[in-house]
From TrEMBL:
Pathway: Cofactor biosynthesis; thiamine diphosphate biosynthesis; thiamine diphosphate from thiamine phosphate: step 1/1. It comes from Vibrio halioticoli NBRC 102217. Keywords: ATP-binding, Kinase, Magnesium, Metal-binding, Nucleotide-binding, Thiamine biosynthesis, Transferase. It comes from the Bacteria. This is Thiamine-monophosphate kinase. Mg(2+) 2 binds at residues 46, 74. The gene is thiL. Mg(2+) 5 binds at residue 213.
Length: 322
């Protein structure tokens, strides 16, 4: 597009301190990177498209944060330490006000993780951002979806459901009147990162996933890859006070927690004997974790509320979803 190189040099090149493992970043046909020895490189790509993942008029700073947060969340879920990111961005026009806000949100989060933008592509078209992040994991210590064992406990970080409430506020202006509407909208875009927790779980968690589609959906990925079942105690789901006040109904808030996507919290499994030591480490890292269920040998997902099996189980949940 017109001014492509001006935009790149003004907004995307040389915006950050250089990492010592980046021999060459923007300006040539490829970046040149130095990988540490005995380390696997974790690589993940995610797109954020206007109209699908955010509304065109959304706060650009939040869009910059969210685009990167969703990618960093995948690194966290593997226990990886963020290192490099490349960006393919499509812009309808050279809207510099939008770009300034976007870069503010993007680089603030990148710098917080010593994550360097090492290259990309800038084109004209419908607004969309595709990022590829790369991070380091000592060989053999990646947190996979496939290691959950019968009897392991299921835990989640943070509180669940806020992102879904925020989405409702974004899509239904009448909900702006409700308690904590703007804070929940902010949380929808600005999830906090779980990198420290993921790294702390290396060698401990038997499986891990980040909650991007919703707990009920994501736990089933662990079940499939590990060939196990699971039960979740809905009364144990961690809910924020803001969500309960927003919904004014604890049961409804639990439903939000089960289905809320784009939470970017971690869901992981732990053998019982590691529960206490991981709880203590999480406390030292100031990360909230909550035990919400167990891995079973049934190959199905069962939901309980105060010890009572929920009649419709996941089918009931799906009905709620539609
Ligand atoms: P090429 O012709 O090889 O596709 P470009 O002209 O697209 O190169 O880009 C020039 C340089 O700017 C490259 O080094 C590329 O990595 C970098 N770059 C382009 N867009 C971005 C972006 N959005 N973020 C970071 N780097 C970018
Ligand atoms: Mg190019």
């Amino acid at each position: 597009m017109a001014g492509e190189f001006d935009l790149i040099s003004k907004y995307f090149a040389n915006q950050q301190l250089k990492r010592s493992d980046v021999a060459l970043s923007q300006g040539d046909d490829c970046a040149l990177l130095q990988a540490p020895e005995n380390t696997h490189i974790a690589v993940s790509t995610d797109s954020l498209i206007a109209g699908t993942h955010f509304l065109e008029h959304a706060n650009p700073q939040w869009v910059g944060h969210k685009a990167l947060a969703s990618n960093i969340s995948d690194l966290a879920a593997m226990g990886a330490e963020p290192a490099w990111v490349s960006m393919a961005i499509t812009l309808p026009s050279a809207d510099e006000t939008w770009l300034e806000g976007f870069c503010e949100g993007f680089f603030e989060l990148a710098n917080a993780h010593d994550l360097q933008l090492i290259g990309g592509d800038t084109t004209r078209g419908p607004l969309g951002i595709t990022l590829t992040v790369q991070g380091f994991i000592p060989q053999g210590l990646a947190l996979l979806r496939s290691g959950a064992k019968v009897g392991d406990k299921i835990l989640v970080s943070g509180c669940l459901g806020d992102s879904h409430a925020g989405l409702e506020v974004i899509l239904d202006p009448s909900k702006r009147e409700r308690a904590h509407a703007s804070e929940l909208e902010r949380r929808h875009y600005c999830a906090s990162s779980k990198v420290a927790l993921g790294m702390m779980l290396r060698g401990k968690a038997s499986s891990c996933i980040d909650i991007s589609d919703g707990l009920v959906s994501d736990i089933q990925h662990i079940m499939q890859r590990s060939n196990v079942g699971a039960q979740i105690h809905c009364d144990k789901l961690p809910l924020s006070a803001e969500l309960i006040e927003f919904t004014q109904d604890k049961h409804l808030a639990q439903q939000y927690a089960l289905k809320s996507g784009e939470e970017y919290e971690l869901c992981f499994t732990l053998p019982q004997h590691l529960l206490e030591s991981v709880r203590q480490s999480a406390q030292q890292h100031n990360v909230m974790i909550t035990e919400i269920g167990e891995i079973t040998d049934s190959n199905t997902l069962h939901l309980f509320d105060n010890g009572q099996a929920l009649e419709d189980d996941v089918a009931g949940f799906d009905h709620f979803r539609s």
